[in-house]
Structures
1.
Amino acid sequence: MTKLTRRQFAAGTVAGAALLAGSGPFNIVRAQGAKLRIGSIHPRSGYQAQLGLACQRGIDIAPRVLKQLGMGADIEIMSADTESNVDVARSRAEKLINDGANVLIGAFDSGQSAAIAQVAEQKGVPYIINVAAAPQITEQGYKFVFRNFPTAPMLVGDGLNLMKGVFEKSGITPKTAVFMHVNDTFGQSMAGAIKAMAPRFNLPFQIVETIAYDPQAKDLSVEIAKAKATGAEMLMPVTRLNDAILMVREMVKQRWEPKIVMSPGAPGFYEGQFYKTLGKFSNGMITNVPWYNPRSQLTQKLLDEFTKTYKNEMFELNVGFSFEAVMVAADAFNRAKSTDGKALADAIRQTRIENHVMAGGTLQFNEKGQNVNIKSVTLQNLDQRPKVVLPLDIAEDNLLLPLPSWSKR
Amino acid sequence: MPAELIANVALQGILTGLVYGLMALGLSVIFGVVRVVNFAHGEMMTIASYAAIVAFGAWNIDPLVAMVPIAVILFALGYVMQAVLINPFVNRPEHSQFILLAAVAIIMVNALLMVFGPDARSVLVDYSLDSVEIGPLLVDKVRVITAVLALAIAAGLFAFFRLTRTGRAIRACADNYLGALVVGLNVRRLYALTFGIGSACVGAAGAMMVLLIDTTPSIGPAFTLQAFVIVIVGGLGSMPGALLGGILIGLSEAMSGLFFAPSAKSMFAVALLILVLLFRPQGLLGRKA
């Protein structure tokens, strides 16, 4: 047997590697020889746990779906729990980076996301925000922070525009409204945006009362009693999940039946747990919110895989935006061919993805790292699930207004 | 502001406060006798809430019925905790007791997280969303039922401590530890019994609470803090004080939510605590040390 020399072995290895590299489909660019470590950081315990877990499901399923679509990369997901706490979020972000994360994705909550953004910027590690709306996060001049989610003013702008569409379509125009909002970073951002933008939209109703409540409230009976006493025709809530459940439950108990309940853009009404807990009383609520495009092929593929993997969970916007965040990271990694923070950040800045999951235009970031092409839709809870009712070109069902009384739902 | 709105909110606050009072009663009873502050109090209540959720989910047992076996289970848990874990710490410094019970609380929260996950859970019975009309007032039926039950349980507990030999023996231990030993009372057993009774109270409160609010494993520390605020306002060790403290906190939360900012409800409860600590440090119905 001929003995293989060291030079022959090296030449053979190089030739073999070149052959393998050359045999792959040349329309897919892959980063060679490296693994992208994505630090997924979300509230997986504490009062935001359900929503953080929904985001995590979108992250966990992404590498497999991307691979099936030929958009994959060698990805390792490293997960951390913020415990629904800003300080914990900051320290977990540091730990993820110290443990080798090349990109961070998170964190559902604006306060926690702002804390993580500071850490990511200091360490020079790209951070892709999947869900968080406080506008200031992308107003700091950060070079490593990107957000694929609307800011509060974008949410409110879309939300208020869609409200007019709802009034027009239903023929019901309320003259008075109560604005109830959760008193955290997100809720305050939304309240600020509504206060600043409402006059510009020439809304047909007057906000007769604004009620802010504790994000960890265990009971909203006083708040609903106060709102009911105003006699307002519309309730405009900005909620999280648990408080949305408390709110509706208390409305039923206190027999408060405003003509319309419409959120200008907030979680709560479209979450799986909302339907599980409230059953038929979940019906009728309207939310103007960024949502997945049910007509997109990628959405359908993701939806199929999600349903197979998580049989009892609901596919909603947290899943969609989290999946897209991984898609952005994988796409940038494939183009940058490096795990270096600056190279990845530069590649993310050049992102242009036409075929994606969420409704809106091309997935790309402006000079501030913000995707400004995301569009909201009007969802209404019908048959105990969220259905797109506006815009009409992607509508799944007809708008149901006026709302039937609680006893007839 | 309409008078009926104020009356409605005040009544809701008092009814919720009575259930808070029952929760705090357990803490007060334990401290009044054993002189150990149960820092795992809220977590024990959360265990009771989850037991009620399991009983409803698996066997469709109404939490108000499940409350009885759950109180018995919590009694056993409290008895064993005191007999095995806390008795050796009774004469140790307070910081040792604190660390012990804080550790127990952390174990309980994490065990609940492992078993049930972080999702909020609730029980929706037929009457969960019913209301009762009393003149111009519209009162939550569940709150009325739970408040009446809380009062009944508290009355039963008062009767037990006043009228039974065991109850009097427990009070003797609380009044004079050395004297109780001298007359031959089994103080350690009576301590365990007291811890069991306090835990049974919190078990009953936890089972009722699932009808009022959603439960998550992480809700325990908030309840522990709330129970503390209530017993300090009412008077540590005073049973009527715990009920009064519960009513005052429930009422102050409701009224501050109505007249000021709802998000500042807890702030007013804590402000009430500070006022009591400044002007009546022993609590409203507490005795001076």
2.
Amino acid sequence: MNTSSSLDASPRDRVTGTQFTRGLGILVLAGMVLLIVLGLFVSPADVNQGESVRIMYAHVPGAWLAYLAFIVTAISSAAYLWNRTRSLTWDRIAGASAEVGVLFMGISLITGSLWGRITWGTYWTWDARLTTTAFLFVTYIGYLAVRGLGGTHQQRARRSAVLALLAVLEIPLVHFSVELWNTLHQEASVAGRGTDVEMDGLMLFTLFLGVVVFTLMYAWLVLHRQRSLALDDMLDDSGLDTALTARRAEAEGMSR
Amino acid sequence: MDNAGFIIASYIITFGAVGAYAIGVIRRSRKSSRDVPRDQRPWS
Amino acid sequence: MSNSPKGSLPKNSSIVISAARLIAAKDLRVELRSRVLLNQVLPFALIVMVMFAFALDSDAVLERVAPGLVWLATLFSVLVMVSRSFTVETADGALDQLRSAGVPATGIFIGKMLALMVQLMVLVALLVGAAVVLYRASFSWEGGVLLVTTAIAATCGLAAVGTLYGGLATGAKGRETLLPLLLLPVVAPVLIGATRATESAFGTNGIAISEGWPWLGLLAVFAVLFSVAGAVAFGPLLDD
């Protein structure tokens, strides 16, 4: 690492990057290109779904990674709340992971909606999985809003940690209720899970590649965002220190 | 939009959103780090 | 701050129970004197019921969706009531004083939850009455029993979640506006379960009463889960 002036981050400086994330980033970019090439061009169309299956290579990994992200948020929240592992780093990981989770879930909802438009002619159906996904999305937007409420870092951490764990409790309940609700309407059979696809080798590989690429993307994003949050927190703290120092200097000046 | 349009839109939205977020994070950390001494960062 | 050791439940449970009883009584007494529920929330809920009629504009449709409308109006009112329940506390920093006096958070939670539940029962009773009058709903004796048990289970769940998230969303400015966003997704299971059970009770669409009881199970599970979760999580939430 170079030892240039510590206060000047020139545009070419690495701020939250390390050698590891540099390498990771290159992998991600390469993977993305490969995924796009395979997904959009090289892999074959599906027998039943036709070309629309191509959306699945972005939609499915996005959804899975969003769920993973929220699990990470829940685990990090628990880690923060447990006395023995209490550290604001867990809080920042939880926050970063939730942000990326919301991002991926939003993408997943949109791409899924577009896929539905092609396959079923509608942008939306009320089946259990889709509805629960929408609820999850809104719940984590609420979580991010709570994180932005202000107060000390510890207050933010504790509030959002409790919220994340409550979300883990609430999501299965919502899913279960909506599922029960749907069996009344039997819409499930009409909309079906049209993803019953007989995937040949290349299609499976592309899907697998999608999951890998999205996982790497997730890791890269969370690493950088978590460090970005750390910088924000340090900035807050140093701002506080500066204010305290100034206040003390004032007091001393007055007491002379 | 015909089917091809939807499919391409999906890919653009997906990677575009991810890219925009990534750029946003990097810019945000560049802004914050201007006032934080380099040696305080535990990861580098 | 409270000095009660965390593990010794039996010793402290009486403190929790008396705290709960005192706080529930206090909240209800505040309500009796200020009559906010009576003068503001109930009229609001009734207006909502009337507005539904304007929006939906068809007797047949109204009769069909009456159960859903009752519980929608209830949910909207919960937002107002929870907000009120905590404004009462933060107005003079009462909640902080309670905590620093060593009152166990669990007790505060249970107390506020019970008070909220009582008020909600009154609200639901009124709204069912409004549905009978405005939307031509009706129910038999058995339907009535189903209605009462549904109301108990649903209001218990709503009161638990409301108190819990209300504690989170109270205090500093900018927080209260978060309450609807946080609360409504969580109470979706209550809306689904209570509406379906009420449908059976009203006999809407020829649905038999027997089909309503399973939904009660869902409501009961929700109520228990969030009562426990609330009792546990309220302390950390308040310890700001």
